[in-house]
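idk why but the lab printer keeps eating my pages so im just putting this in chat instead. protein + zinc ion:
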Amino acid sequence: MASGETASERRLKGRCYCGQARFEVADAFGYAANCHCSQCRRTTGSAFKPFAGIERAKLAVTAGADALLIVGKADNHDAHCGRCGSLLFSVVRDGAYVHVALGTLEDAPSIRPDRHIFVGSKAPWYEITDGLPQFAEHAS
Ligand SMILES: [Zn+2]
Ligand SMILES: [Zn+2]
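predcted complex ->
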């Protein structure tokens, strides 16, 4: 159990499309957003990527760890299932945090994406129709 984690902290399960890669993460995300940047669009094949951020130590890969496809560097990368290619999470902020792709979660997190970021590079064919705050790049 990671330091700072309490025994009562809820754990969420997540997995890739084919099921080879599985992970668990504490239901203790610090922030969540919908990212419209071109990288998130391409890695997910979607208009945007809903994700949530948490300290890296609070996420554990429980299956398929040896076969993950790592795109990037040790402290800044996207982690995909090595078989089906699902994007599971991104290691960010020099390795201190992970951004979990919320679409891979089997259990619903307590947090909800509350903003749109990198709207300046969003897909022209997608219209944001909710009232959440929008930021051209990172939320200020
Ligand atoms: Zn897979
Ligand atoms: Zn992005």
